[in-house]
Amino acid sequence: MMKPAVTIPEDQSFALATLPPGRAQKRLALAVMLAFLGAVLILAGALSNVQLARIDSFVPAYGTAMFVNDMITAVLLFNQFATLRSSALLAISIGYLFTGLMLVPWMLVFPGAFAPGGLLGAGLQSTDWLNALRYAGFPTFVIAYTFLKVADPPKRLWEGSVGATILSSVAMTSAVVCAVTVLVTVGEAYLPRIMLDPVHFSTLALYIASCLILWNAVALTLLWMHQRSVLDLWLMVVVCAYAIEIYLVSFPGFARFSAGWYAGRVFGFVSSILVLFVLLYEITTLHAQLLGAVLAQRREREARLMTGDAVSASIAHEIKQPLTAIIASANAGLHWLDRVEPDLDSARNAFRRVVTTGHRADAVIENIRVHFKTGGRTRTSLDIDDVIQEALAVVRDQLRRHRIAVQADVNKRLPRIRGEQVQLQQVLVNLITNAIDSMATKNGERVLSIRSEVHHSSYVMVSVEDTGEGLEPGGAVDRIFNPMFTTKADGMGLGLSICRSIIEAHEGQVWVTADKGRGAIFHFTVPVDSDSPS
Ligand code: ADP
């Protein structure tokens, strides 16, 4: 009846920066890296010394696409930082922001992109210096990320305000990019020459490119040595892609607008898009898992609350009837004793009823406890007519008080059933009490009929019929089995819902057929005990 609680592993991680990569993720990352290396081997040979036409719109197109990519990645990573508050994550987020922002001055000063000689009054050298600084920046931030990650004591949180930290990081990075741009463009005359002419790289450019590839290799090695998370894995792919891009841009053609230069840029774009897609996929998958876990936790909590509510409400409901009977019998006993000539026999009978009903209340409480604790597994072979007689004995006083005649057709040839005696008795007591309540408010003939018969060969059906108010078909009928539905001033609306839960736990069914003004008939079925000889 109660669903088993959903367990959520305590240490389950839902962040890219803390989640260890699975085997499939590792394989995928390795495959991507190998594909990159394969591509570079093919491209390097095929594209060496091939010079292509100068396409001026290529630089703004590439620059804008890369800018958007880097910014989206930076936002995703800042978001991870806001959740995990790790300084390492802050470093790598700033890294993406830096490389993205550095594309802006690079595009502006690139000759032919926005103005024939480039904007910002720059000359020949600044474009590639800006580019080199951008290429140097990313692995530097990756190395900072790795060291901070290693140094970060686990679970130590960033203490400042997250929003202020992100804002100041954005402001400071922008300021650094502006400062670098000013220094490079204004101080261009003092910079070593890395372009021989508007197209060809100097030897220094090739040395710088080699150093940058080496710097990426250092970042890759450090990451590899300290890799722990999905993020580390994909950063390794990114660093690898950066090294390949730098190689392709510089070496196969040794010049701008060479086939290698174009191929390197396209490669850089494709690889960064690929990595962004993977990150987005991982983040959305984690988000879905997190959502699933939160919902499962909420359901579990609600189930626990419901159990608590249901236990207390059931106890209150089920104990009300015996308590009323105990008070009535005790009052009757006192009444017999208070007479001028006390009627000791009647008083003794009344007090015996107090004891019997007290025991029944005790059994009811115990049964509810067992029911909620074990889901109810103490079934025995029963004669349903015995259960009916016992239930009638419990409500005998109420029936007499309301002058209700009882017709119980005892069917001695019924097969035995399998069930919990106290629970089935409770079902009958609830149904009979409702029948009494319904008839008590109506004048005229008051008859309670109880029948038992075989139903669909493997069930026994019990019907409890009254001549009370009845129920309007299509009206409340649909809701009477819902918990808390009641039309009575002092009702709790639990009786029928408890009946249903007990009967359904017995693999039976309960339903009502009613006519407004002509009484109601409640039926329930319980399975025949197949082990018992009929
Ligand atoms: P409660 O008795 O506390 O109201 P129940 O779940 O036992 O809670 O019953 C819910 C409602 O179903 C009652 O308030 C009443 O309106 C309706 N009902 C139950 N039994 C009968 C019946 N025999 N005749 C007419 N209405 C009934």
TrEMBL record:
Please list the residue ranges annotated as the Histidine kinase domain: 314-530
The Enzyme Commission number assigned here is 2.7.13.3
Q: Which terms are listed as keywords in the entry?
A: ATP-binding, Kinase, Membrane, Nucleotide-binding, Phosphoprotein, Transferase, Transmembrane, Transmembrane helix, Two-component regulatory system
Respond yes or no to whether keyword Transmembrane is given for this record. Answer: yes
CDD domains in the cross-refs: HisKA
Q: What class of enzyme is it?
A: transferase
- Residue ranges annotated as transmembrane are 28-47, 59-78, 90-109, 129-148, 160-184, 204-226, 233-254, 266-296
Pfam families according to UniProt = HATPase_c (PF02518), HisKA (PF00512), MASE4 (PF17158)
Judging by the UniProt lineage, the source's domain of life is Bacteria
Catalytic activity annotation:
ATP + protein L-histidine = ADP + protein N-phospho-L-histidine
InterPro entries from the entry?
HATPase_C_sf, HATPase_dom, His_kinase_dom, HisK_dim/P_dom, HisK_dim/P_sf, MASE4, Sig_transdc_His_kin-like_C
Q: Which GO terms describe its molecular function?
A: ATP binding; phosphorelay sensor kinase activity
* PANTHER family to which the protein is assigned, alphabetical: PEROXIDE STRESS-ACTIVATED HISTIDINE KINASE MAK3, SENSOR HISTIDINE KINASE
Query: What's the protein here called?
Result: histidine kinase
Phylogenetic placement of the source organism: Bacteria, Pseudomonadati, Pseudomonadota, Alphaproteobacteria, Hyphomicrobiales
- Gene name in the database record: tmoS_5
